[in-house]
Amino acid sequence: MFSIMNSASPKLFSMESILCYATTTEGSDLHFDTIARSNICNIEVTGSEEPLGHTIYKISHEILWQCSADGNLHAKTMILFDALGHYRWEAKLVLILAAFATNYGEFWLIMQLYPRNPLAASVAMLKRLPNDLSALKPRFKALGLLIKTMVDVTKCIMKFERLQLQQVVLDYEAMAVTKSQIYMATYWVIRSTLTCSSQNFLFRHSDSSTIAIWELSSLVCRLSGIFSRLRQQVDVCLQLLETQMHIKLLNVFKETHIDNQEVLNLLFSLNDDLPLKDCSSEAKLAVSELKNQVALLLISKPDLPLEELLLLVQQTCDHTDQEKLKGSYKIVWVPIPSSTTWSRAEEISFDFLSNCLPWYSVRQPWLLSLTVPKWVEDKRNFCICGSDNLDWIREVNAKMREISSVGVQVEMLYVGKNNPTEHTRSILATIDKEMTSFSLTSMKMQFFWLRLESMRRSKLRLGYTHDNDFILRETSGLLDPDENEKGWVIIGRGSSTEIIKLQGEKVMECLNLFSTWGENVAKLGLVDAIRTALEPPLVTGPCDHSNVIPYVEGLMEGTAVCNICKRPMQKFIVYKCDGIVGSSSQQLGKKGKSIFRN
């Protein structure tokens, strides 16, 4: 079974650019040409000794031959099916559309050049191409709609073929229905290609123009219906797959492995056998290059700020232990965009940085399974604990393990105490023996408290006070705790500022109420479930309280709980015009506010 590797997407993108020009009479867009050329250069066919260009050439000639030969359209379609028999389903469609695009693109290239190019004029005369296309505009408009629908169907099938079906087992009925619809859709795309390619169809006399437009419109209607049903079915399969893959990713990190290969293959190699590249040499690498080495994943947005990037490069390359550690670890940059699709700016930033960094990088991050960014971005619950009372620490840790054992995901971390004493260090040694993955190293613990102190000094220099700044108030509370209390914990989720801070006996009181608030964790989240249990509602009847919060990316995700009645709130998005002429939708989006109300 032959397939198109390095993704069929660049080929489809280049083909779309040709068909985009071909269905309009506008001039060329040079920027679009550049993008198309840069994307087409990395395509290759696996499983076939024949060059890709020769394959497309043969198919395009077969299409032209069938258009000029006698016989019904169904029989001609099946002949093309036989010619594409060894290719995967998405490859069949990409190749057939590419072959059509070369023929159709050649026609439009001649038509655009012949008024000012003698060679093009001579070729147009030999091919007996029409001098005036104005009478054919309605026909080309219908043709453009059909081409767009064919491309949409092809993208949908490519989306299904990329699903990592080798990793999980999907529902048999859902798979059978989807594959049946793919077979039907492929047939009608190939049949539509033959219809579009017929020279007699495109350029017969104007008195048959109405019939031609009707035939094209009928195909658009049929393919649109097929596309609608297929898209729904592919979305069902995608949802089933993402659910199972997310569970698999969560479980694989809980297992013991002899090396890092299973985990890294699951993260990076589902769609690409050479998913990595050496940024300095641009060599394509397999995940096996990281075997028996520590793999440090640098996860960020594609557009890394240059100042932060240079600082990070300096910290890693100029480290005092660099020579000693050289060869024992590799840094792999994993860029993840803000949305499920890559913007042109993000692509440009990735192309530039991935060729400059002294590390490894994911070679084609847009091929990563959608489940991987979801797993990376999944906001994890954390519980930070500080104390110099070992018995209290053991008690808290035991209760947190009990809570985790019933399925509540929370990661606990012991950070000691500001200005640690020898007693604190002995506690740290005991924790390392009794409570695995629970504490920082002594060095990292010092950095934690130094960082908090630096944050406090920075806030004070800027003129903030404890009364008007949340961060200053909380950092001071940690740096100068109540000495009469046994310790403190902070419970939060990801980068959200929504946290719960408890001290001394309040900690165990809260954890002992797990039977009360535990059942609400799935619905409200860990933080809001605890808050609802600790803070009784101010009203018991109907509540119409609302809260307007300025938009901050990632700040208010998921469910919000009313401060008054402690019930989940509905979320609405409001956009306010800034009154500036020419504001873009992106700028207006930044003016958005989240309104939560009951």
Tell me the count of domains. 4
The amount of beta strand, in percent, is 5-15%
Walk across the major sheet and give the strand order: 4-3-7-6-5
Overall residue-averaged pLDDT value: 77
Instruction: Count all strands and give the number.
Output: 15
The 3D shape can be described as elongated
What structural class do helix, strand and pairing data support?
A: alpha+beta
Stretches where pLDDT falls below 50 for ≥5 residues? 25-44, 552-556, 582-592
Number of helices: 24
Query: How much helicity do the residues have?
Result: 40-55%
Distance between the termini: 56 Å
Describe the largest sheet: 5 strands, mixed
Organism: Nyssa sinensis
Protein name: Sieve element occlusion N-terminal domain-containing protein
Domain Sieve element occlusion C-terminal: 372-578
Domain Sieve element occlusion N-terminal: 45-257
Structure description:
- This is Sieve element occlusion N-terminal domain-containing protein.
- It is built from 24 helices and 15 strands.
- By secondary structure, the protein is an alpha+beta fold.
- It has 4 domains: 3-246, no CATH class; 261-377, Glutaredoxin, CATH 3.40.30; 381-535, no CATH class; 542-598, no CATH class.
- Strands 4-3-7-6-5 form a 5-stranded mixed beta sheet, with no helix packed on it. A 4-stranded mixed beta sheet has the order 9-8-10-11, with helices on one face. It has a 4-stranded antiparallel beta sheet with strand order 12-15-14-13, with no helix packed on it.
- The model is unreliable at 25-44, 552-556 and 582-592 (pLDDT under 50).
